[in-house]
Amino acid sequence: MFLILSHRKIISESTWNGAYCISINKGSSDDDSRYLKSTVIHHYLFGYELPDTVILLTKDGQCIVLAAKRKCEFLEPAVGEAPENGSVKSLKLLTRNKGDENAENIEEMLKEARGESNGEDVKIGVIMKEFKSNDGGKEGSNISGWEKKLKDSSSKTEIVDATGGISVVMAVKDKEELDLLKKSSVLSNKVLKHGFVPRIEDVIDNSTKVTHEKLAAEIEEIIEDPSKINLNVPKEAVDSCYFPIIQSGGGYDFKVSAQSNEENVKFDVITVSLGARYHMYCSNVVRTFLVDAPKQVSQMYDTLLGLHEACLKAMVPGKPLKFVYAAAVKYLRDEGKENLVSSLPKTLGFGVGIDFRDTNLLLNTKNTVTFRPGMVFSLAVSFAGLKLGEKVKASVNSKSAIKDLSEYGLMIADMVAITDKGTDVMTKFGKGVTDISYTINDDEEDEESSDDDRKLAKKIAKQEEAEPTGGRRSGRLAANASTGQETEGAAERERKQIDLMARKNEERLRELARSSKRKGGDGKSKKAEELEAYRNTKSLPDSVLPNQVKVDMANQTVILPICGNPVPFHISTIKNVVLPDPDSAAYLRINFYTAGMAVGKDCPENTAKLVQKYAPYATFIREMTFRSLDSHSLTTSFVSAFSDFRHLMNLGQAFRQISELRKRARMKELQDQEEANLVKQDKLVRTKNERVPRLADLTMRPVFAGRKTQGNLEAHSNGLRFISTRGEIVDVMYTNIKHAIFQPCESEIMVLVHFHLRNPIMVGKKKQQDIQFFTEVVDASQAVDAGRRSMYDPDEMDDEQRERQLRKRLNEAFKDFCRKVESVARKNGYSLEFDIPYRDLGFMGNPNKEMVSIQPTLNCLCNLTETPFFVVDLSLVDHVHFERVTFMSKAFDMVLINKDFTKQPWKVDMIPNEDKDSIQEWLTDMEISYTEGPMNLNWKQIMSTVEGDDRFYMDTEEDEVTPKEAGWEFLRMFGKDDDADEESEEESGYSENSGQEESSEEESEEDKFDSEEDEDDYDGDEDLEEEGMDWDDMEREAAADDRRKKRDGDDNGDVRASRPKRKQRRR
Q: pTM to 2 decimals?
């Protein structure tokens, strides 16, 4: 009551159509009336439904209730309990009077309704839709007499519709209502995840025939009895919002009034819509599942996902509801898919609460109601009437049910709460393509196609035997016939890679265009800052003597005497300082950074910029040397002019101070560089009054200051906190976690959780982007007895059993902790999910000078067991290139190229050849392009060239006519120039037959050489001498050297006699 009356004072009268008072008339109760606005208001106000009741709310704060005696007794405790500062001043109960058929009560209500109207007509707001259709129930009821009086012209009342105002008031939920809506959404989400999905997967796997209606009935039973999916929720607290809607096989209807028909479920495009009520509060979730979907359908689904995200971003407090539809249309136009605007529904969602679908809070093109924090909507985006052509279906397996579809639809719906920070999606079930896609006929198609290819090959072979063509048969093709299946798989991958690389080139062009537009002029380099040791001469230390070298540690300055005048030099200008061994005199040489020579890597960045700035016109001092006749004195040769040496500094002391000051400045520079990219983290909000998820006795990597760091890990409201046994604290915010990985202990010696961060954090004095917490199952180094132990040794068997139990216990503890962390993060509005590495896709490789096991996760390629950690975010990988791929090598290298060309690629060396096919298959599934080549490449030079090429991803030169290879296509071993490459290979002597030809040529040349030797009339070929000696020339020269050394004719004969034998062996 308070909300309704206070809202009328705040909002303009147009929301209420100028109503002076509001009459809420609740007629008789039935099962079809649970979503009537009057029923919803009764549940909202009382928590119960009070049939045949009239509630009159006046503008001056009077609340009058006309009801039967028992209902008045129910409301009696509220009389006189109106809050002092509330909008409701008093509550008056009028008991039904059968004697005069409520005539006296109705007159009193009209009197209160008119108030101070001075005889003019009074506007009374009602729920117009119910008022027009309501027959007042049976004659003599409360509703009947009141509504007849309002319709009578003598009552001097005007009936107006107040439904819109009531909807807006009830749209903003308080904290308790939001909690009930969230629990209702979780219930719908659980029913979908643990009820529908396992059931539909079982139906698909077993090809079971089940009707849409029967499957929907099973889902409704789960909603009404959540214990069937192991949810401990009272049955009396839950209900189904509507009968679940399951559709497939075409003819999709995405209206709320749609029904599940009696046709069998088809394994093509399956949509499911279900909603649960928890303590009367409704929720709704819709998902589309794709089975054997062609590429076009998956791409259309990706567009729908993008549309869903665009709508979420448009749901901002203060914006009108129609802004969502406008954002959806704009997204489709920006993506170049304006033709899909006609496939959108008329509304993209509706307000949800006790009323399942509030028609006054529709997300359509006309609604001017504004979003406010506390509102909850069902955001439902869909494409209907999408055509599926025969050309698209041709790529699908012939057994797939999607072949029979000519038209399909896609839909996604989520519960969305409006908050001050934006939106909170309360139905968390995954909606990515990988979450809702199933493939059941792909493998069969491959087998059939390979069988067809084998049959065709046999047929051609028989025809060749029966009717010889006279052509030469290739031995290589005959050898490859047995491996046709693997070759075909590789060829199919290669075809997919060619299409993928073309698509990726287009995507990268758009990404680079957007990023350059976003960056604008932010790419300007930072200007050099002028050095200022002292503001003026008065700021110099008072203790400086004319011929003294003094070090001012506080101002980071070295004061040097020049012609008797103290001149300050900032420490960042000094390159180094040298103190030679003293002889008869002592020397102190100071070198400075100057132009015209390399400044070196230790030069401060600002100093290097200053040198570059002033190099064209300034004169630089390269070095200064100070000499003292007293080896223990720091003054110059003018020291003899002074009689008091008490304030003079020792040379060694000055040298040490300058060196120490340079060291400090260098450390400060490195620390500033380390902290330059650090992002300020939020302060951890510790969880109070709740049990905090905790893992005890963990070891953290990286460690603090070289020591093993052990402690406890806790999950709080907005992040995780690790507290070591020495009191060291590391906080990891949920918002800063990019990838969370849980690796159970199977073949490793540890079980761990690993966090790859978006922005680095400081651990000790170093910047770290990967934080890991683990527990060892067995010691990394374990003492083994020298003697052999029997495999039946009971002690050893007990040890193995204990280790297995420990592994299982630790895995369960870490897994339970990960689930709790996800729950805490989700409860506080953060999104965090733990990935688990795919062991079956793992391979051995050397990313950091050591062979380790590398395993992919959903988002990363990583090795987490050994340090340094190897974690590659796949979203940052632009392309993968395989090096040293030859038939002779047993291993190859893999280079993962970063999308940021300023960074060097990641590299994994020495991967066994047998893993190449599985890695390439995985990369193709992840839609990452790859190439391969026979040699190692200079990636530093390649990345420098690529970074400076503005048209790298384009397929033409700057004239936009001359064709060129786009993107990373230049790394391919094959392409348009295959024939030319083969010819060049034959010419260069690397083809298969070249070896035999080369050996025969060598033999013939050797015969010629022998004959020439026998005749002793050797004359060198001048042309060959200019080009360099070949093997024959070197052999002749060696023979001549032998003759000169031995000077013995017999030896020459032995040499000549031995040559035919050698020649015979070579033949």
A: 0.46
